[in-house]
Amino acid sequence: MIEKLATQVSLPQLPSDQDASGRTLGDEEIRLLADVIEKGVLTSTKGNYVREFEQKFAQRLGVKHAYCTSHGTAALHVAYAAIDPEPGDEFITTSITDMGALTPILYQGAIPVFCDVDPRTLNVTAETIERAISPRTKAIIVTHLFGQPCDMGPIMELAIARGIPVIEDCAQAFGASYKGRAVGTMGDIACFSLQQGKHITTGEGGVVVTNRDDLGRRSYLYINKAWGYGDPKPDHYFLALNYRMNELTGAVALAQLGKLDMSVDSRVERAHQLTKSLRGLPGIGLPDFGPEYFHTFWKYCLTVDDSIVPGGAVGLAKILKEQYGIFSAPRYIQKPAFRCQIFAERVTFGKSQFPFTLARPEALDYSERLFPGTFKGLNDVLVLPWNENYTRQHVAFIADSIKASLETLKG
């Protein structure tokens, strides 16, 4: 086994999405960046690269509108602003998400209302969403975590029946689909991220997409300080920010878009290899999804049953790091988002606690009993590093390391 060799030979070093070893950056990006510099037009209001990326991204998804933003958090903020909540309105969201998906809700004067998740996928479901709906619900945010689409059929049926718009957070799910429909095309408006570790990257960057003309118009305006470029009598129509992407970022985005299919195909192929290698291991749960889901593996997630595997996910991660140099993330975000200080102590604008001061008491009830799936899911999950530059040899090394680590844990 690999543990017997660990002291005799140097271990393989896995490609990392935090540097060039795990990214597809290369000559194409350099060529387009050089063109931007040579022309000297770095603002997207005057250039062509951001606009071309937007057009090609919209065409790829089959949507009417796509607008770039400076980062993924900005894309989500734009989507929330497009919905245009009143102060105190509620946005239903997941308990397991990045803070960048939550703080823009507060900046819009609205209240994040957390719902529980399926402990196997860590995704929200129609059932968990329905329990969180109130007369003040303004929108539902659906996050396709790790590249695994949510069960969108029942979610959309619920949302349509209640007349509530759906915002899809597709930051981790480029190329994923549900029953043949691409994520980002089923809700009312959707957001993607081009952050360093995503399927394609510009370091920071985001995209907002929609088929609704009203949301498209408001999104475009919000990105541009609500200035009506091209209007007969333009003005700053409402409170908004500058969330524009620049031409340098747009050039990289355009080059990266041409590599998306390769990135997705590689991630999926290597993920299937690992699943096959690990199938049947006691206490280890593997990505489990039916044919209606196309999972594109931003990360590869295991569940670890601590009643079978001593030490559970934390113990397995410790052995993988110490003995084999594999850095994984047990518990993913460590604690539910509502346990972060911003929510626990309502730290917002000065000492005002706004907009929490407008919330229903029930909307701020973060009792553990209301989130059994969340706590079970975070306890069990082990997030493995993943990127498009893994080879069959890299995946074989990961599989062998996990098997050897399990043997070590069992004594």
- CA-atom Rg in angstroms: 22 Å
Quaternary structure state of the chains depicted: single chain
Helix count, DSSP H or I runs of 4 or more residues: 14
- The class by helix and strand makeup works out as alpha/beta
> How many domains make up the 3D coordinates?
2
Number of distinct beta strands: 14
The biggest sheet amounts to:
7 strands, mixed
Which second-level CATH architecture of the largest domain applies? 3-Layer(aba) Sandwich
Range of strand content: 5-15%
CATH topology-level fold name of the largest domain: Aspartate Aminotransferase, domain 2
How are helices and strands ordered from N to C?
HHHEHEHEHEHEEEEEHHHEEEHEHHEH
Question: Cα distance, first to last residue?
Answer: 15 Å
Q: Strand order, biggest sheet?
A: 1-9-8-5-4-2-3
- Average predicted local confidence, pLDDT: 96
Q: Given this structure, which CATH class of the largest domain is correct?
A: Alpha Beta
The global form is globular
CATH superfamily of the largest domain: Type I PLP-dependent aspartate aminotransferase-like (Major domain)
Helical content class: 25-40%
Give start-end ranges of low-pLDDT stretches: 3-8
What do these coordinates show?
- By secondary structure, the chain is α/β, with parallel strands linked by helices.
- The protein has two domains: 125 residues, Alpha-Beta Complex (Aspartate Aminotransferase, domain 1), CATH 3.90.1150.10; 233 residues, Aspartate Aminotransferase, domain 2 (3-Layer(aba) Sandwich), CATH 3.40.640.10.
- The chain has 14 helices and 14 strands.
- The protein has a seven-stranded mixed beta sheet.
- β2, α5 and β3 form a beta-alpha-beta unit.
- The longest helix has 19 residues.
- The two termini are 15 Å apart.
- The N terminus is likely disordered.
